[in-house]
Amino acid sequence: MNRLKTIIVNVSRLILALTFIFSGYIKAIDPLGTQYKIQDYLGALGMREWVADWVTLAASISLSGLEFCLGIFILFAIRRRLTSKLIMVLMTLMTLVTLWIAIANPVKDCGCFGDAIVLTNTETLLKNILLLGCAVIVMIWPLRMVRFISRNNQWIVINYTILFILASSVYSLYFLPQFDFRPYHVGASIREGMRIPAGAKPPKYETTFILRKDGVKKEFTLNNYPDSTWEFVDSKTVQTEAGYVPPIHDFSIEYDGEMLTDSVLNDKGYTFLLISPHIEYADDSNFGDINHLYDYAKAQKIAFYCLTASTEDKIRTWTECTGAQYPFATTDETTLKTMIRSNPGLILLKDGRIIRKWSHNNLPQLKVDSKPLTQLKEGRQPTRSLFARILQIVLIFVLPLFLLTLADRTWAWTRYIKFKKRK
After folding, report:
1. 102, 121 contact by CB (below 8 A)
2. I need a labelling partner for 271 at 20 to 30 A (CA). Which of 88, 102, 127, 320 fits?
3. Model confidence over 349-388: pLDDT tens digits?
4. Residue 125: how many other CB atoms lie within 10 Å
5. What is the per-residue DSSP string for 94-151?
6. CA-to-CA distance for 267 and 380, rounded, in angstroms?
7. Alpha-carbon dihedral sign for residues 222, 224, 227, 231
């Protein structure tokens, strides 16, 4: 029976560890994406305007870092009693939250695995119930977790884990996330991402119009829409039947009353897109580099647009402060936030395909007299593969912990052999 308990506890511990490590890391390397999800929750509660952006960003980094650290700690069986209790508290809170979103459906998905794995609210609830059961088992018998590292060396794992995950978040915040799971990743074709396969069943929607006449409000559909004597009040659209939704379904560019989406995506040459969901909140410390890029684009006859969801007065303020002369076009705010995690950020397109993405902190240094993009590395997709990026994480974090564990277990085994000989 004791052996069975030990097996159950350690299986539960590994399930929790792997889930927490993966979930925490995915959110930690995309702090802005996690911040947006927190803001969605606050918006559903009617508290979005009460909480400052820096608070939600700090919460994003802290919560994802805590999740990752708890996953590493329970994997190595560090501070077993305390770690198991903290995981139990966290899983209880997360299960209650997912129960709420499964019933009320205030957000489309919980964001527990960022953009890497998207679960429905019901799937998220079932997943958390399973993890909560594992947390209960581990909390009841925490000392049955097998140690991977001795108590004397636990402080090394604790400090290195905290340093690594915080550095990962800061790096991703300053530059861009090391791994991009969104449909606008480098190498993706926006045009192909918008296509609906032949024979695919589209989703069905129903729009209800709220109209008023003689002080009386009534709801109508397109089938029974009344005459012009009724005054429009509001409308709402709900999805009545599921169907295929392409990965990119809300990308559009409006400039001076005209839609430029097709002309931009069908341009066989290069196009620079400066992305700023809200230009009034954009970092203006590198506006000089942006202006130089626009001058370079004009000299090379490359299209250059700033895509934003801001109003005209906010755009006018930005141009007055920075001397910007590039054209501004309108795009949906959520789409812009999805395209790049930087405000502002820069995307280079060629024939509708994303060639490069830059944060405002590492913009390409191109001047009027620079060579054409076809002759520069900035005009080509990065050659660094996904495997190389994963290998870098392994060498920086996984390998040192593995070597530490190996050395620690070797030392512990040597002490045990000496003890047996003396005995």
Report:
1. yes
2. 320
3. 999 999 999 999 999 999 998 999 999 999 999 888 889 9
4. 21
5. HHHHHHHHHHH--SS---TTTTTS---HHHHHHHHHHHHHHHHHHHHSGGGSPPSS-G
6. 16
7. negative
